[in-house]
Every structure is written in structure tokens, then in C-alpha cells.
Design goal:
By secondary structure, the protein is an alpha/beta fold. It contains 15 helices and nine strands. The radius of gyration is 50 Å and the shape is elongated. About 20% of the residues are buried.
Length: about 450
């Protein structure tokens, strides 16, 4: 017996940590994938990439003084990047890859859709791999065996000691006849991949309580749903908060335990609502049902999104540019100036004002000449004293205007100045106007003649 233990210790001591192991991180954008991996790496300032990111985590076995690098692939949450999965998960590393599925506590109402979405993508991708039936079956059987052989390690021996490791190895390779029956509802879907579901940003629970009126029973409903989901997938579950550094170190130890077989003796934690951790193989429906006792407003069998509903959309508050109000007197002075300019423009465009300083359109005046529809005596010009030439021209146009009233239905004539229609002209009115105009013209003609005679006599 002693020789057997010594040989196992010697064998374990000579084993090196494998270098072909990797992790594939899946989840929607804004679920904290990059931040989580940076925390596991010990990096303070994570750099967000796009598409398919690659990083690594240094893993050290203190008891064997051995170190290796654990490769980490982080896939962008954009559906357009799912074709990049073939680089991170393929036939070569299928048996050596652990999957991390992330959801964020900031949007618990979208968990159902997100989880189903990523499980379907993963399932479709695994089916596309050129794996033999034996390889798939062996991977699935290995996961079930590890689930059935789970036991909480006691503290009798140092978990890192070679002797304790030998006990763990023997426990993980026990005969199938000694395995416990598979838990009810466990592995209803077995992809042959070791899956760890990580709930990020659990510090947001206080915000859900304050802003969205979440109660303890809401968080219990969320937990029982995600635990049943993990049970069906044969997955582990960890609630984490990088901001408050909750369960991050514990998650690191569990990952190295699942991938490299390093010691992990922390039992399941389900008391603190924001720091839940459940290793694969521990949970079952009976343990989950304990959460049902606190649910008064709804039942566990209710559809998930009927209980955890999406709140009304709130437009993100954006800080607007500060506007400095103008001085009141300055503002009023500008308004007064604008008003005066507007009124001045209106006055300058008035038909009556536009008539000043220029002749009527019907009697245009050019420098040194005068034209009219019917040329009158050339002696009458604009040089006539008191502007009598203009008056003569005006009355002359009246004399030569067509007589008679407009016919019915014809457009009414305008005066050519501002487009206004003149008053209706009766025959009596027109005759009187012609008489007055003739008398005035005769007076003007006599006046001009006298002036000319006077000028000639002076000569």
C-alpha cells in the first residue's frame, strides 16, 4: 500500500502543467468579458478590442513549482463575428477548451434571450466540427462522470499536497458502478464542453432595488432560473463583481481546478445574493427549491420575462452645452434696430413713396428728353417752370386715353403706378374730366406762349 502511494506521488510530481489548454469567452457586448479576463490576469487597465481577441493567464502550481500559460479567446458580442469561432474552437482543441458564458446583472431581463442565443451558436458550431462519433461521446461521458463524482473536499489534508492529489485522482477515476445517479434534469443538453456561467456586475443589484423596485424575491427568482439553466447544461455558476472584487479570485482558482486539476476546496456559496458560486455537480432541483419559499408575488414556473420584465426605455441623459443669456437691454436694442430696418424697408417699397423722385411707368423720363404715348408740343418739357411740363404730359395722356367703360368680363385696367384698380368712370365723369383737362391744357399753352413772346421781345 505504501509503495503504491509513493509511486503515485512520484508520478504526480513529475507531471507538468499542459500548455495546450484554453478558455473561450462568449457573451453579449457590455457584459464585462474583457474586464473580467483582465481581472483574472491581474491587469489594471484593460484594452477593449474587436472581433476575436486573444490573451493569456499565467497559471502557477506552487507545490510543483511549475508554470504555464492559459490561452484565452474573447469573442465580440456582435453576431457578425460568430464566423470567427473556428479559430478559437476547432477539432484540435475541442477536448482542451473550457467555455465561459457571461451575462450582466445590469440587464437581467435579457438573460433568457442571451443564454439561448449563445447556446444555440455554440451547439451549431460544435455540430459543424469534423469530430468522430467516438470523440463526441467520450467528451460528453467525461463531463457526466465528473458531475457524478463531485464531492466537497474535506480539510483533513492539505489540498495541494501530493497525497491529497492522489486521493482526488482516485476519486475522479472511480468505477462507473460506484458513481451516484445523475441528477434529475441535469445534462438535458450535453455539448461535451465544460461550461462556466459567470454573472458579472453583481454590484448593480443595489441600483435595481433603488431604481427598479426589485425585491429579494426577484433576485431569488433570477437565481433559481439561472441555476436550473446551468443544471440542464451541466455548467458551473459564479456571481462576480470586478468593481467590488467579489468571487474573482475564487473563479480563478476554480478555472485552474477544472482545467489543470489544481486543488479547490471551497464549498458552494448560495447565502449572499451577489456572491453565489456553485461548482458543477453540487446543485440539484431540491436545493434550488429552497428559493421558492420566499416567492409570494409569483411562482417559479412563471415564464422568465413575465416576471423579470424590461423597464421602459430611458433616453440617456446627455449634457447640453451651457447657454449664457444675453443682457436684456442689449437684446431689446437689437430687436428695436431690426424693427426699424424692417419698417424702413417697407416704407421705401411703398407704391406712393416709390412715385417720388421718378416718373410714372406710363410716362418715363430720361435725361434731356420726354416721351409720351402721343407726342405733344415739343416746347413743353421738364424745364417748364413749376413742373408744368409734367402736368401737361399727365393731362395729355388723359385726353388720348380710350373712351368708354370696360366691357363686362374684361379685366379692370390699372393705373400703372401701384396696380390698384381706378374707380369706375361713367360717361358723364369722363366728359367732365376731358373738359377740365382741355381747359387746363389751354391755360398752360397760353402761359407758355406768353412766356415765349416775352422772351423774344427781350431779345
Amino acid at each position: 500500500m505504501e509503495s503504491e502511494i509513493l509511486s503515485e506521488v512520484q508520478k504526480q510530481g513529475s507531471t507538468k502543467l499542459p500548455s495546450n489548454k484554453s478558455i473561450l469567452v462568449l457573451g453579449d457586448n457590455a457584459t464585462g468579458k474583457t474586464t473580467l479576463i483582465a481581472k483574472l490576469q491581474g491587469v489594471e487597465d484593460p484594452k477593449k478590442g474587436s472581433g476575436l481577441e486573444y490573451a493569456y493567464i499565467d497559471v502557477k502550481d506552487e507545490y510543483r513549482d511549475d508554470m504555464t500559460r492559459l490561452g484565452v479567446w474573447v469573442l465580440d458580442g456582435d453576431p457578425g463575428h460568430t464566423n470567427l469561432l473556428r479559430y478559437a474552437l476547432n477539432e484540435t482543441n475541442y477536448a482542451h477548451t473550457l467555455i465561459i458564458l457571461t451575462v450582466s446583472m445590469t440587464t437581467p431581463w435579457s438573460w433568457l434571450e442571451q443564454m439561448n442565443h449563445w447556446i444555440k451558436i455554440l451547439d451549431d458550431h460544435v455540430k459543424s466540427l469534423k469530430l468522430t462519433a467516438e470523440e463526441r461521446e467520450e467528451a460528453q461521458k467525461h463531463l457526466v462522470t465528473r458531475w457524478q463524482s463531485y464531492c466537497e473536499v474535506s480539510d483533513d489534508l492539505d489540498p495541494g499536497s501530493p497525497m491529497k492529489r492522489s486521493a482526488i485522482v482516485r476519486n475522479n477515476s472511480i468505477d462507473e458502478d460506484d458513481l451516484l445517479p445523475l441528477t434529475e434534469s441535469a445534462f438535458t443538453m450535453n455539448l461535451g464542453l465544460d461550461i462556466v456561467v459567470v454573472v458579472t456586475k453583481t454590484d448593480y443589484m443595489t441600483t435595481l432595488e433603488k431604481n427598479f423596485d426589485y425585491k429579494e424575491e426577484h433576485f431569488d427568482f433570477i437565481q433559481q432560473w439561472i441555476r436550473r439553466f446551468c443544471l440542464e447544461q451541466g455548467a458551473s455558476l459564479f456571481y462576480t463583481s470586478v468593481k467590488e472584487d467579489k468571487n474573482c479570485d475564487l473563479l480563478y482558482k476554480y478555472l485552474t481546478h477544472r482545467i489543470y486539476g489544481l486543488p479547490f476546496q471551497t464549498p458552494a456559496l448560495v447565502v449572499e445574493k451577489d456572491a453565489v458560486s456553485i461548482p458543477a455537480g453540487w446543485d440539484n432541483l431540491k436545493k434550488i427549491s429552497i428559493l421558492y419559499e420566499n416567492m409570494q408575488s409569483f411562482k417559479p414556473e412563471n415564464y422568465y420575462t413575465d416576471v423579470i420584465t424590461q423597464p421602459p426605455f430611458r433616453k440617456p441623459v446627455s449634457r447640453e452645452t451651457e447657454v449664457i443669456a444675453e443682457d436684456e437691454q442689449v437684446f431689446l436694442a437689437k430687436q428695436m434696430q431690426m424693427l426699424q430696418e424692417t419698417q424702413g424697408q417697407m416704407r421705401s417699397e411703398s407704391p406712393l413713396r416709390s412715385q417720388q423722385g421718378k416718373a410714372s411707368p406710363r410716362t418715363p423720363v430720361t435725361a434731356g428728353s420726354q416721351s409720351s404715348p402721343k407726342k405733344i408740343d415739343g416746347k413743353l418739357n421738364t424745364s417748364t417752370p413749376s413742373g408744368e411740363g409734367v402736368l401737361a404730359n399727365f393731362f395729355n395722356s388723359l385726353l388720348h386715353k380710350k373712351s368708354g367703360s370696360p366691357q363686362a368680363g374684361s379685366p379692370r385696367p390699372t393705373n400703372g403706378i401701384d396696380g390698384a384698380v381706378p374707380a369706375a368712370m361713367t360717361p358723364e365723369r369722363m366728359a367732365a374730366s376731358r373738359t377740365d383737362a382741355a381747359a387746363e391744357l389751354d391755360r398752360l399753352s397760353r402761359s407758355v406762349k406768353k412766356e415765349m413772346d416775352f422772351t423774344q421781345s427781350d431779345c
